[in-house]
Specification:
The complex is a heterodimer of chains A (370) and B (186). Chain A has 370 residues and is mainly alpha-helical. Helix content of chain A is 65%, strand content 1%. Chain A has 15 helices and two strands. Classes of the chains: A mainly alpha (370), B alpha+beta (186). Chains A and B meet through helix 2 of A and helix 1 of B.
Chain lengths: 370, 186
C-alpha cells in the first residue's frame, strides 16, 4: 500500500513555497501571518472556553446537577462571561513575592502549550509544522510547562504554592516516563517519529486494535499518565483544594490566573489530540485492512471531523475520570508510577518489540517493517 | 487481589457516574425562580413559625410562656393582658423574631396545646431587618376553648381584638415604616 492518497501539506511548507518563488508577494505573506496569529489566538481561547463549558456541564450531570443554566441557552455563554470577568479583575501580586518571576510564570505555561500546538496534525490540510521529530518535539515541549508551574509556586513565596509546585514537578517528571514508554510502542510500530507518517501508517487500522493487547495496554498507560501530567483529578495533587488551597496558583488572580487556567485546558486538548493521533489514527478514517468498499465508505467523513471526534472522545474519558475517581495521596501517586505503571510500560515495550519482529499483528506491511 | 478489587470499584464508580450522565431524570437541581409555581417543599422544612388558627380564626394559646422559656436565644416574647370578664390572663401579642431564630423547633415541641408549627414557606426576605419581627397571633383574646363557651358570635367578637403581623410593643420597636400599618400598643 502506498500512502500517497493521504497527502499532507503543512502550513509551514506552504509558507516556504510562498517565499521560494523569485519575487515573493510580501503583502499576502504578511496578511497571512496576521491571519495565522489571530487564528491561533482565537483557536486557543475558543477551545479553552468550549472545554470549560463542556467540563462544567459534564461534571454537573455526573453529579446529578444541571451546571450553568442562566447565561444564554443552557448557560452556553457562561464561559464568555467568566473570561470577561477574569480579564477585568484586579491583578493582586503578593508583597513579598519575586515580582518578575511571578509575572513571568503564567506566560511560560501558555508558551509551552502554544509550542505544542504547532506540531498537532489537525487534518490533512491543517498542520502548522510537520516535523521529522514531531513526537520527540511534543514530549519535550509539553514537559516545558512544568517550569512555569515551578516558577509560579516558587515566586509566590507561599508554603502551599511551593508544596504544590514541587508536587507538580515530581509528578510530571515521573509520569513523563510512562507517557514516553507508551508513545514508544507506537513509534516502533509505525517506524517513524513524524506525526503525519504515524497517521499514514494507520491506514489499514488504528494501532489501538491492530497491535493486539499491546496497543490497548499502551493506550491505557498513556491516558493514565497524561492525566497525571496535566495535573487533573485523580492526580491533581498540585492544586488539591482540600490540602493546598489551590497549590501553585494560590497567589494568582485575574489575568494571570486565567493564563494558568487557559494552559491547563489547552494541555487537556493537546494530550487528547496526541492520544488520538498515536493510538486512534488522528485524522485517518476508520479503516479495516484492505476492505476497499468499507474503507471508501468511511472516507466520506472528512479527516478534520475524524480528528475532532477522536479527540473529543479522549477528552470525555479524562473528564469522566476526573468526576468519578477520588484523589490519590502523594506517596500512592509515586508508588503507582514507579512500582506499577513504569514496569508495565517496560514489559509492554518488550512485548511490542517481540511482536513487531515476529510480525504478529493485524495487517503487517508487505515486505516487512518499514 | 487488592488490585482487582480496586479496579472493580473504579469501574463501578464509572458506571454509576455514566448512569447519572445518561439519565437526566436523576438531576436533583431545582430551577428555583422559574419553577416557583410547581415547587414541592418537604413537610419537615422549617422556614417560618406560625400559630395554628382554627376554621373560625381562633387559636389555643393560653400565654403560658413555656415556649418563651424554651427558646434558646430569646426569639419569642409572649405578651399577655388581663381579661376581667373571664378573670384570667390571655394572649395579647405573640412576638417571634425571625432574624434571631435558629429554627430549632423547641417551641413547637414544648407547647402543651400544639399552638405552634413550622411552615416550609421560605421566601421571607425583606428590605428592613425590623420587618423580621412578627406578631403571630391574629387577635388579642382568650383561647378558642374559652371563647367557644360564649354562645353568641356577636358577643364573642366583642371579647377579642384583631392584631396584625406588626403589632405589639416589640414588633417594629416603635419605629414607623412606610406601607406597614402599626396599631397602637396596648
Amino acid at each position: 500500500m502506498n500512502s500517497s492518497n493521504w497527502e499532507v501539506l503543512s502550513l509551514s511548507e506552504k509558507l516556504g513555497r510562498a517565499f521560494s518563488v523569485s519575487s515573493p508577494d510580501y503583502f499576502w505573506i504578511s496578511i497571512s501571518f496576521v491571519a495565522v496569529l489571530a487564528g491561533v489566538t482565537l483557536f486557543m481561547s475558543l477551545t479553552a472556553m468550549i472545554l470549560v463549558y463542556a467540563e462544567r456541564k459534564l461534571a454537573a450531570h455526573f453529579q446529578c446537577r444541571l451546571g450553568p443554566m442562566r447565561v444564554g441557552w443552557h448557560g452556553i455563554l457562561q464561559s464568555v462571561a467568566d473570561a470577561l470577568k477574569l480579564l477585568l479583575k484586579e491583578d493582586i501580586v503578593p508583597d513579598s513575592s519575586d515580582k518578575m518571576i511571578h509575572a513571568l510564570a503564567p506566560f511560560i505555561c501558555v508558551m509551552a502549550t502554544l509550542l505544542a500546538l504547532i506540531a498537532l496534525p489537525l487534518s490533512p490540510l491543517l498542520t502548522v509544522a510537520d516535523m521529522d521529530i514531531g513526537v520527540l518535539y511534543l514530549s519535550a515541549v509539553s514537559g516545558f510547562g512544568v517550569i512555569g508551574i515551578l516558577l509560579g509556586g516558587w515566586s509566590s513565596n507561599n508554603k502551599w504554592s511551593l508544596i504544590g509546585a514541587m508536587r507538580a514537578g515530581a509528578q510530571i517528571i515521573s509520569y513523563e516516563l510512562s507517557v514516553t514508554l507508551s508513545i514508544l510502542v507506537v513509534v516502533m510500530l509505525s517506524g517513524s517519529l513524524k506525526l503525519s507518517q504515524i497517521i499514514q501508517s494507520q491506514e489499514q487500522g488504528w494501532w489501538i486494535w491492530r497491535a493486539p493487547i499491546v496497543g490497548m495496554i499502551s493506550f491505557i498507560i498513556f491516558v493514565i499518565a497524561s492525566t497525571a501530567e496535566i495535573n487533573r483529578t485523580p492526580f491533581d495533587l498540585a492544586e488539591g483544594e482540600s490540602e493546598l488551597t489551590g497549590g501553585f496558583h494560590t497567589e494568582y488572580s485575574g489575568m494571570r490566573f486565567a493564563f494558568f487556567f487557559l494552559a491547563e485546558y489547552i494541555n487537556l486538548f493537546i494530550v487528547s489530540a496526541v492520544g488520538a493521533t498515536l493510538f486512534l489514527g488522528g485524522w485517518m478514517p476508520f479503516h479495516f485492512g484492505t476492505f476497499a468498499g468499507f474503507n471508501s465508505l468511511m472516507d466520506f467523513i472528512p479527516g478534520g471531523l475524524w480528528f475532532s471526534l477522536k479527540t473529543a472522545f479522549i477528552i470525555f474519558l479524562i473528564m469522566w475520570f476526573r468526576w468519578t475517581f477520588p484523589r490519590l495521596r502523594i506517596d500512592q501517586l509515586m508508588k503507582f508510577e514507579w512500582k506499577f505503571l513504569m514496569p508495565i510500560g517496560f514489559i509492554n515495550l518488550l512485548l511490542a518489540a517481540i511482536m513487531i519482529l515476529t510480525e504478529f499483528y493485524f495487517f503487517p506491511l508487505p515486505g516487512g517493517h518499514p | 487481589m487488592i488490585f482487582y478489587r480496586a479496579l472493580a470499584s473504579l469501574i463501578k464508580g464509572l458506571r454509576i457516574t455514566f448512569y447519572y450522565l445518561t439519565h437526566p431524570s436523576t438531576v436533583v437541581t431545582q430551577q428555583y425562580p422559574e419553577n416557583r409555581a410547581t415547587l414541592k417543599l418537604p413537610e419537615r422544612l422549617r422556614a417560618q413559625l406560625v400559630m395554628n388558627h382554627d376554621a373560625s380564626g381562633l387559636h389555643k394559646c393560653t400565654a403560658c410562656h413555656i415556649c418563651e422559656q424554651a427558646c434558646p436565644n430569646a426569639s419569642i416574647h409572649v405578651n399577655e393582658r388581663a381579661n376581667p370578664a373571664l378573670s384570667k390572663t390571655e394572649l395579647d401579642t405573640f412576638i417571634w423574631r425571625l432574624d434571631s431564630c435558629t429554627f430549632c423547633n423547641l417551641c413547637v415541641m414544648v407547647c402543651p396545646f400544639q399552638c405552634l408549627k413550622m411552615n416550609p414557606t421560605f421566601e421571607s426576605s425583606v428590605y428592613d431587618q425590623k420587618l423580621l419581627v412578627y406578631n403571630l397571633a391574629k387577635y388579642a383574646g382568650a383561647t378558642s376553648t374559652a371563647l367557644m363557651k360564649v354562645e353568641d358570635p356577636e358577643a364573642r367578637k366583642k371579647l377579642i381584638e384583631p392584631r396584625s403581623p406588626y403589632d405589639g410593643p416589640t414588633a417594629l420597636n416603635g419605629f414607623k415604616l412606610a406601607g406597614i400599618p402599626t396599631e397602637k400598643s396596648p
